[in-house]
Amino acid sequence: MRDVSLNPIRPLAPELAWLDDAALATTLVTLTAGSLRAVLAPEVGGALAAFYEVTPDGPLHWLRPAVPAAFEQRDPLRMASFPLFPYCNRIRDARFEFDGGTVDLSGNDARFAHALHGNAWRHPWQVGARTASSVELHFDHEPDARVPGDWPFRYRAQQRIELRDGALRITLSAQNLAGRPMPFGMGHHPYYPRTAETRVYADVQAMWHADADVLPTHLGPHPAVDALREGMSPDAFDLDNNFANWTREATIAWPDENRRLTMTADAPFDHMVVFAPANDAQLCVEPVTNTTDCFNAVGMQELVGGCVLQPGEEIAATLKWTPQRG
């Protein structure tokens, strides 16, 4: 494993012993600011492998750290978080109508019946400018008609990831490089440590109910809405749902460990996904610009999100995770 820093190669930091060095064959970028660390795996979908704090008792992980298998299998789904471009979550039957034609995304991944999370997470990202506490990653997509289900629009995606003011900041941006309008959405997919005492706080107004394929059916009330305002246990419901009209702030708390992590988002991250499956160790609270299947959704734009980028148009917005102890 290579660890790219201001000096091209350096040994793996002692607190990263939770990784199996022998199992890794990828480039890592480690950011440092005070006691905070962020470890990036550009070759694995531009993913974040870990966000933690160095303590006398060892690393205190604020996101679920990647395991060696995530690197062996180049699997962003097993990372701490990964970027979502050019849409978030599922597209029903991997197709939608746009600008007078059908966009067919079928065949790009046999694991999923519906297109999932766009395509940027399936490719290596390039490392750009960096300092000890920040790095820029970028991904350029060139459509290939020979690839089944390839996204048919040319675009550029970027992440500026930095440790600043005691927080992890990720600025996502994209530009439509196609000569025609392009439907678009973006987000990040963070996984959090989940224990029996974990609580999730967020002020939301309604939940998108979903069918057996985890595709939205209608927006309405649900007990999880009130539970989130009061501090919801991930074990309270079986969730893989979008929530509407959140205040763009959510807190994941571990009261038994006397710590919490607050996530804030800029517009247009006006939608939030909670993935808290029953009897499972996974927990995701995801800031996104569009609901599941937004390109097929019928309804007011503010309820489904997403946008259309004109040729050459750019979009950018920032996410922030602030850890607190005590």
UniProtKB/TrEMBL annotation:
<dbReference type="InterPro" id="IPR011013">
    <property type="entry name" value="Gal_mutarotase_sf_dom"/>
</dbReference>
<dbReference type="Pfam" id="PF01263">
    <property type="entry name" value="Aldose_epim"/>
</dbReference>
<dbReference type="GO" id="GO:0005975">
    <property type="term" value="P:carbohydrate metabolic process"/>
</dbReference>
<dbReference type="InterPro" id="IPR014718">
    <property type="entry name" value="GH-type_carb-bd"/>
</dbReference>
<dbReference type="GO" id="GO:0030246">
    <property type="term" value="F:carbohydrate binding"/>
</dbReference>
<dbReference type="InterPro" id="IPR008183">
    <property type="entry name" value="Aldose_1/G6P_1-epimerase"/>
</dbReference>
<protein>
    <submittedName>
        <fullName>Aldose 1-epimerase</fullName>
    </submittedName>
</protein>
<dbReference type="GO" id="GO:0016853">
    <property type="term" value="F:isomerase activity"/>
</dbReference>
